[in-house]
Amino acid sequence: MLGVKRRLAKSASAKPLDDTRALKKLRLCEDGRVKGGKFRRINELLYTLPSDEALHQLKAERSLNHATHYHEGYDEQMTKWPCHPLDKILPAVKRKIETENARVILDIGCGSCRVHRELSTMTGGQASGQTEMGLERKGAVVIAVDFAAPVGRGLPPKRATAEEYIKRGGFLECSAAHVALPDDCADVAIFSLSLMGTDWPTFIGEAVRLVKKKGSVFIAEVSSRFKQPGKFIRELNRCGLVLVKQQDLDSYFSIMTFRVQDKSKFDQQLISADGLKPCLYNRTKAHKTDKDSPSDTRSNGHMHKEKHPPVNTGQTYGKWKPNSTAADRTGRN
Predict the structure, then answer these.
(1) Which pLDDT score, from 0 to 100, does residue 6 have?
(2) 30-44, 62-76, 96-110 — which one is most confidently predicted on average?
(3) DSSP strands (E only) in the chain
């Protein structure tokens, strides 16, 4: 009888613990859904509206107070990617700093400021081994540009004047369509998955204005965003940007390096804004939409190591569908 009482007492004491764990799990799940909803809402506004209108809408909804959720959601999506375009862009920028004396680097749409972090402590190879060569020692600075500042340690500070940004670098909070810096102030501009908004050609125009002649513009986007990659390149070429290098990263990202050849040729009207599809995220689980597709997605958004998402199909990958229709977006948070 005593043993039965002990077992009953033990089970009674264990039940509140199980309930507490279940409650914590439920709260974490609900918190994740709320953050995911905020991320999708901000992401959809940024991709489907002109940049100024999107920022105005975000301010009206006070969503800029939750910019952290956007950066966190973006970072979470990155964990499901097979690679990241900055893995290829950063070494190329380092070479330009070391061999071409590039001094001012613009990271337009900087997100969590990875370019600033890595270039600030970039490593250079010497005969005696690897030595740390910070940007200041190389005479170079990074100006990180985004619509809202991320939260975290090691982020670049804001500056009071454009002259200070050019001299010391920092974080500049503004729209990519209106960068408050003088003409011909930079040697390199980077657009890493940041041609967002229906007015993204104005972002290219700002890069042409800001980057010196013979300077470089790196553009990295999800391959399936390009309706016609060749047409995209030809349009930028007519605007004075010459393609230097193009590469596909795991059949997932397209990375293009342009040289600013003739700034006087730039005409925004020559660039088709609908040449890039918006990147939109779905709440539904991933599923295969093409039986003959070489890709293989799972419900948790991960994929088999040896297989990659197809290009220009609009297929759902993870929780992301680059050209989802209005029907797909119905019922989103």
Answers:
(1) 60
(2) 96-110
(3) 104-108, 123-126, 129-132, 141-146, 170-173, 186-192, 211-222, 241-249, 253-260, 280-281, 320-321
Task: Please tell me the pTM assigned to this model.
Answer: 0.74
pLDDT of residue 109: 93
What CATH superfamily classification does 85-124+139-270 receive? Vaccinia Virus protein VP39 (3.40.50.150)
Closest CA to 333 of 51, 49, 124, 41: 41
Select, from the ranges 39-48, 149-158, 230-239, 291-300, the one with the highest average predicted confidence (pLDDT).
Answer: 230-239
Contact 188, 94 (CB under 8 A): no
What token pair was written down for 86? 């900055």
- φ and ψ of 158, to 5 deg: -80, 150
Residue 222 tokens, joined: 């999800």
Outline which parts of the chain fall under CATH 1.10.10. 28-79
Give the residue range(s) of CATH 3.40.50.150 domains in the chain: 85-124+139-270
Which pLDDT band, with edges at 50, 70 and 90, does 56 fall under? confident
Q: Classify 28-79 by CATH class.
A: mainly alpha
